[in-house]
Design goal:
By secondary structure, the chain is α/β, with parallel strands linked by helices. It is 38% helix and 17% strand. Helix 8 (193-203) packs parallel to helix 11 (251-261) and helix 9 (221-230) packs across helix 10. The two termini are 36 Å apart.
């Protein structure tokens, strides 16, 4: 059995520059309501403020065991890698992988504006290690990590809690009735991160599910390969939708529940996460939260979702903080 130190581990980050006029133009060809391209809910999913540079730097600084970092994009390159010579010198282990590469054999589903099909095919990245870490571009490591924070005896460390499905939670049942009564669209009709986790747990025959949060997911390539060879219809279910659909599933939850079925996992009931979802609170509160995150040695992950929605004053402070921590 491989020791932690000899285990080869790669990292994979999905990224899109939604500010790119080319990307917006491409999306406009597939979206019915063109005005929705400017909606806050849409922009939150696609816009970025160069967070990916710090996501990469946080891995290079605090996960030195990672061999290669693959950034999966749709014919785009983050600003910090655009100078090719400089990138080769400063980031020799960082590589761009285009959607066309991982969608080989599934090109009919491109272009896609949905992270779920992309996540479903990450295991097809050429040269990807059997053990890899998956993260979004808004997720950063807060401090030094070891392989054993993600894999113990080759088994993925799953951070989460066993949780009931929505239909087994009383207040969710009440909510459903209220929504029907006031004719409001139920959340059943839209994809959600937790809903997607429940979808796949049900498909796999579970009566409850392990609820994930926005942390780094330790995954094994063969887990996907072995499952999708025998269950190609489940793969098609996730990759055929160009935009999010309520029947889709969260890909990390697929891998986790497959590992649970094989008893090839270590469950950790601690997300070790500092999470920012909105930036409406005052600047002093934000500064204090970051200061506490720095001090709490148990916290490994920092997720700053939708930074593009941050006010100018707060964004300037956060970018300065990111530079001072990771440069």
């Amino acid at each position: 059995m491989e020791s932690h130190n000899s285990l080869i581990v790669d990292a994979v980050i999905t990224w899109v520059d939604g500010n790119d006029p080319g990307h917006r133009e491409k999306m406009s060809q597939y979206i019915e309501d063109k005005n929705s391209l400017s909606n806050k809910s849409v922009r939150m999913r696609y816009d970025q403020v160069d967070e990916i540079e710090f996501a990469v730097k946080s891995i290079l600084k605090y996960a030195k065991f990672v061999r290669n970092i693959f950034i999966v994009t749709d014919n785009q390159t983050p600003d910090f890698l655009k100078d090719i010579e400089k990138a080769k010198k400063e980031y020799p282990t960082v590589f761009i992988v285009d959607h066309k590469t991982i969608f080989e054999g599934y090109h009919q589903y491109l272009p896609t504006f949905n992270c779920l099909p992309i996540e479903s095919l990450l295991y097809k990245i050429p040269g990807l290690a059997e053990h890899f870490l998956y993260l979004n571009d808004d997720l950063f490591l807060l401090r030094e990590t070891n392989v054993s924070d993600f894999f113990i005896n080759n088994k993925p460390v799953i951070r989460g809690f066993w949780t009931n499905f929505y239909e087994d939670i009383w207040y969710k049942k009440v909510q459903k009735i209220v929504y029907k009564f006031i004719d409001k669209e139920s959340k059943e009709n839209i994809y959600g991160f937790k809903k997607g986790q429940q979808n796949i747990a049900k498909i796999l025959g579970f009566k409850k599910y392990v609820r994930l949060d926005h942390t780094i997911a330790p995954l094994r390539k063969s887990t996907y390969d072995n499952y999708y060879i025998k269950n190609s219809e489940i793969l098609d279910l996730n990759i055929k939708h160009r935009f999010r659909h309520p029947e889709q599933y969260t890909n990390q939850a697929l891998a986790n529940h497959l590992e649970i079925k094989k008893d090839n996992f270590v469950l950790k009931n601690d997300y070790q996460l500092v999470y920012f979802q909105n930036y409406k609170k005052p600047l002093w509160w934000l500064k204090n939260k970051l200061k506490r995150a720095e001090k709490d040695k148990n916290k490994l992950f920092l997720c700053m979702q939708s930074l593009d929605q941050c006010s100018e004053e707060k964004l300037v402070y956060i970018k300065k903080w990111l530079h001072s921590k990771y440069d």
